[in-house]
């Protein structure tokens, strides 16, 4: 029998090593992310989810440290095409959740203070593995606060926790296609949580 202290030390070491080892162990065996079935996606997510949340939170960003406690809006991550063919999973904060989960298609007005955080997983078919992609964030301000973008602020964090740099129009020019839904594009229908 192993000495309990030895076992504990080995476990601690493997947990620490796990941080770096895990990222490269999330193997995928498809050529095209659209070919992933639900079981394969679940397996990838189980493998990568702890590392993801940790990576986003590295710089202490207030959304990054909190979003996993928010309401998850899909049953699993899914590939929608937009956002670089990544696997996407959106979380809604308490202010946003009730309205967002209606997945309403017209006359939507998300309350000020709504925050949607969407984690993403890049499927590198070349390396045959899943790696953490950016955390995409939308925050709704008070009426009139950002007239060019329907009062939304678009933001993003790189997997190292640092902010991404882009023009608001880069995100908004696409999200404005869902103007009747207050710019919310929603997850793919097949993975929306029922409410
Ligand atoms: C080419 C179109 C396109 C562009 C550009 C784009 N998005 Fe999206 N976005 C989508 C689609 C489609 C979805 C819903 C798909 C999904 O999440 O499964 C979405 C969903 C989101 C969500 C979840 C809330 C929602 O709409 O349901 C956030 C947050 C988000 N995008 C942020 C951003 C940010 C930040 C940028 C700019 C860096 C950006 N998006 C650029 C198409 C786009």
TrEMBL record:
Residue ranges that the Swiss-Prot or TrEMBL entry lists as coiled coil: none
InterPro entries assigned: Cytochrome_P460, Cytochrome_P460_sp
Origin superkingdom: Bacteria
Signal peptide positions on this chain: 1-23
Protein name: Cytochrome P460
Domain Cytochrome P460: 67-183
Organism, scientific name: Roseovarius azorensis
Record-linked Gene3D superfamilies: Cytochrome P460
Alphabetically ordered keywords of this record: Signal
């Amino acid at each position: 029998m192993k000495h309990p202290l030895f076992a504990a030390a080995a476990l601690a070491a493997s947990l620490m090593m796990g941080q770096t080892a895990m990222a490269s162990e999330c193997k995928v065996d498809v050529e095209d992310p659209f070919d992933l079935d639900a079981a394969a996606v679940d397996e990838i997510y189980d493998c990568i989810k702890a590392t993801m949340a940790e990576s986003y939170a590295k710089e202490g960003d207030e959304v990054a440290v909190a979003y996993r406690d928010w309401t998850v809006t899909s049953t699993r991550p899914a590939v929608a095409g937009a956002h670089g063919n990544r696997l996407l999973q959106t979380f809604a904060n308490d202010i946003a959740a009730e309205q967002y989960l209606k997945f309403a298609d017209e006359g939507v007005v998300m309350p000020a203070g709504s925050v949607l955080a969407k984690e993403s997983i890049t499927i590198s078919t070349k390396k045959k593995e899943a790696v953490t992609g950016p955390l995409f964030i939308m925050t709704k301000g008070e009426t009139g606060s950002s007239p060019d973008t329907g009062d939304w602020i678009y933001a993003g964090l790189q997997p190292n926790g640092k902010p991404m740099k882009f023009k608001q129009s880069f995100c908004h020019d696409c999200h404005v296609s869902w103007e009747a839904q207050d710019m919310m594009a929603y997850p793919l229908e097949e993975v929306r949580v029922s409410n």
